[in-house]
Amino acid sequence: MALYVQAILGFFLVLSSMGVIFARKPVYSSLSFLVALLMLAALYLQLSAEFIAVMQVLVYAGAILVLFIFVIVLFQDAHQKINLYAPKSSPILIGGAVGLLLASYIYLASKLKGIFSSQEDLPPWFGTVEALGKALYLDYFFPFEAVILLFLIAIVGSLFIAKKER
């Protein structure tokens, strides 16, 4: 049963992620991103990582997505039409790609049964704040700090780009 729930959540996660890429308007892309984040949080809940699921919703869906929508609305010129996409693709091609992704996902999920652990196999400390803190600040300290530095560089770079345009 848990495998089917994960497969369904994964399918909707992939579908909403494709909505992020193929949406014609940036606001619709952000809303598809919201659905993708909620599906990921549901997957975390299904894997007994409650704290990570709550932080996913609060931090990403709550704060970062609101920031994305704010920036989109702020910098979108009312007379400017944004065209980020290549020529229109055929709906049959997109439907076939979604069908192929779904079929391969179901096939791999059925063949790799050991990859999805059930809740009985998890240690009692799995998904706790203490385990997450130890993993981030002991085992993965340098990659964690590198990501923080990358975010800082991206924010400063976007400020310079926005300042040059004015």
From TrEMBL:
One of its GO terms (cellular component) is plasma membrane. The keyword Transit peptide does not apply. Gene3D superfamilies: NADH-ubiquinone/plastoquinone oxidoreductase chain 6, subunit NuoJ. It is found in: Cell membrane. It catalyses: a quinone + NADH + 5 H(+)(in) = a quinol + NAD(+) + 4 H(+)(out). It is a multi-pass membrane protein. One of its GO terms (molecular function) is NADH dehydrogenase (ubiquinone) activity. Its EC number is 7.1.1.-. Keywords: Cell membrane, Membrane, NAD, Oxidoreductase, Quinone, Transmembrane, Transmembrane helix. The chain crosses the membrane at residues 6-23, 30-47, 53-78, 90-108, 140-162. The keyword Transmembrane helix applies. NDH-1 shuttles electrons from NADH, via FMN and iron-sulfur (Fe-S) centers, to quinones in the respiratory chain. Couples the redox reaction to proton translocation (for every two electrons transferred, four hydrogen ions are translocated across the cytoplasmic membrane), and thus conserves the redox energy in a proton gradient. Belongs to the complex I subunit 6 family. This is NADH-quinone oxidoreductase subunit J. The gene is nuoJ.
